[in-house]
Amino acid sequence: MIEYEKYREAGKIAGEALRIGIKSIKEGVSYIEIAEKVEGYIKERAELAFPVNISVNSIAAHFTPSFYDKNVFRKGDVVKLDVGAHVDGYIGDTAGTVEIGSNRYKNLIESAEKALYEAIRVVREGVKIEEIGIVIEKKIREYGFRPVRNLHGHSLERYKLHAGISIPNFSTKNKMILKEGQVIAIEPFSTDGDGIVVDGGIGNIYRLNKKSALTKSIKNKFYEFPFADRWLYEIYGEKTPLKISFLMKRRLISPYFKLVEIKNGIVAQAEHTVFVQKDGCEILTS
Ligand code: MN
Ligand code: MN
User: Fold this and answer.
1) Are the C-beta atoms of 161 and 231 separated by less than 8 Å?
2) Residue 51 CA: which ligand is closest?
3) Assigned architecture for domain 2-199+262-283
4) How far apart are CA 284 and CA 273, in angstroms?
5) Each residue of 103-134: pLDDT tens digit?
């Protein structure tokens, strides 16, 4: 059972990093400062499973500041922070939302958080995956919002952030059942828009496509996890932008695009990684 100790360790570190990040997000603070603080905290204790996602307002996910990012948080911003740590490949993935200096989206944020906790209450061995989506959608709609239907939670395995099983945020007909010992991330996204996200351009996050001697140094450092263009400066220094376009042209790496709500609705997210047990589940990222 040693692997669960590693999941617990990774989860604890990810959870602490998230709390520190959320506390530090204030009007006038730069995105890059938060990214470095959160990632620095993780790197001192474990390894990064993906770049910290800092997704503001109608951006739902898959944005991280680039090396030269000049963005600062503004009053009224609704900020999703999504962090991932791993210990020996065992991952903790967790996210939260904060609104800066106002309370306009308090209910929206609460709807995602409450949906997450309702979902966690039903998770146990033998539960149908559709049950999770049903309770998430029901809770979010009670608040008068919509779940984002094309973003979902996922199973996790060693070195695999998305290991094959999707955990829906709305009512589906997924009759598959959860099994004891599985590790899953549940991540409701709630919006006052339509509940669909679309590609919104460069998000500064990339993945490796195939094995190549040309990307060996990336793989050695970041395994097969998503990585930030920022991180490549450790390897390539000032040549990083050139190197990225070279690797993209050869299709050795691909970008993840940032995901934006189709009606520019504001989006809130809450996420925990949990360990499925016989009669419930253990939250690994609290
Ligand atoms: Mn996440
Ligand atoms: Mn996730």
Assistant:
1) no
2) 1
3) Alpha-Beta Complex (3.90)
4) 6
5) 999 999 999 999 999 999 999 999 999 999 99
Whole-number Å distance between alpha carbons of 163 and 160:
5
The catalytic position among 82, 118, 192, 261 is 82
Q: Are 75 and 27 in contact (CB under 8 A)?
A: yes
One of 1.10.10, 2.40.50, 1.10.3470, 2.60.120 is the CATH number of 202-258, namely 1.10.10
Q: Which of 187, 192, 229, 261 is catalytic?
A: 187
Question: pTM for the whole thing?
Answer: 0.96
Ligand 1 centroid to residue 156 C-alpha, Å:
11
Q: How far is the CA of 264 from the centre of ligand 1 (A)?
A: 21
CA of 7 to the centre of ligand 2 (A): 14
pLDDT in tens, 243-261: 999 999 999 999 999 999 9
